[in-house]
Design goal:
The protein is mainly alpha-helical and about 240 residues long. Helices cover about 25% and strands about 5% of the residues.
């Protein structure tokens, strides 16, 4: 069929696709339609009554099968699944030319995912220290977590690692390369404590920010969050009352 014989699409010739529309089933309109009388509900029984709302899983009053089996454990709503990556794999990717980093452009979850170093970011990237003896390059990386052995190996090689907090939306923006939205700050006390410790190389650590004051990848917002979220460290909620 040539393109010249096709009619131009307009509101006048638009119609639903064949088979997408069906006639309404009209019940209770006589026996000639085969849906009259009882209207397809049958003569007696619970389902033939009006207002019969039988929930899924209801078994007529006997103990349903969902209650017969015991339950074990629970679902942790705060559990996170990290995407592990070893230093040996990062060095191999750098040797192949698939990864590159500098103080101005550190390695993030986006570079690791696009290069194929990891196949899924999950809830964040965690750098592990396996294969640290093969690390020969200066690595600048901002993962979500990093092990102590990985931090030691990277810093001994002249690089730097800063663990940054990512919520699901911030991690999605990082992977897609979006910079038009401000990344969320940690709100849970556990997260604030973890990212405020220098031993974890958290981006809220005052000692780390003081050490990396001239680093180009350090954001000014990190310093502001470090001052604001670090105030609760000085608050004393359990103050002993003075004895009279």
């Amino acid at each position: 069929m040539s393109t010249g014989s096709r009619s131009r699409i307009s509101l006048a010739n638009l119609s639903p696709a064949r088979g997408s529309l069906h006639k309404q089933k009209r019940v209770g309109r006589g026996q000639g339609s085969n849906h009259g009388g009882t209207a397809g509900r049958g003569h007696n029984g619970q389902n033939s009554r009006s207002g019969a709302g039988i929930k899924p899983g209801f078994e007529g009053g006997q103990t349903p099968i969902t209650k017969l089996f015991p339950k074990r454990g629970f679902v942790n709503q705060n559990e996170r699944v990290w995407a592990p990556v070893n230093l040996e794999r990062i060095q191999h990717w750098i040797n192949l030319g698939r990864l590159s980093c500098s103080p101005a452009n550190p390695i993030t979850a986006r570079e690791l995912l696009l290069s194929g170093c990891v196949h899924d970011a999950h809830d964040g990237i965690k750098v592990l220290g396996d294969g640290a003896e093969f690390l020969t390059s200066k690595i600048y990386i901002t993962p979500s977590r990093a092990s102590k052995s990985a931090i030691r190996a990277i810093e001994d090689g002249g690089g730097q690692v800063v663990c940054k907090y990512y919520n699901p939306l911030a991690l999605q923006d990082c992977v897609k390369g979006r910079t038009d939205r401000i990344a969320a700050a940690p709100t849970r006390r556990q997260d604030i404590m973890w990212y405020s410790k220098y031993q974890n190389r958290g981006f809220l650590s005052p000692d780390l920010l003081k050490k990396l004051d001239d680093a180009p990848f350090v954001e000014e917002r990190w310093k502001l969050l470090s001052r604001q979220l670090g105030k609760w460290w000085k608050q004393e909620f359990d103050v002993e009352k003075k004895k009279k």
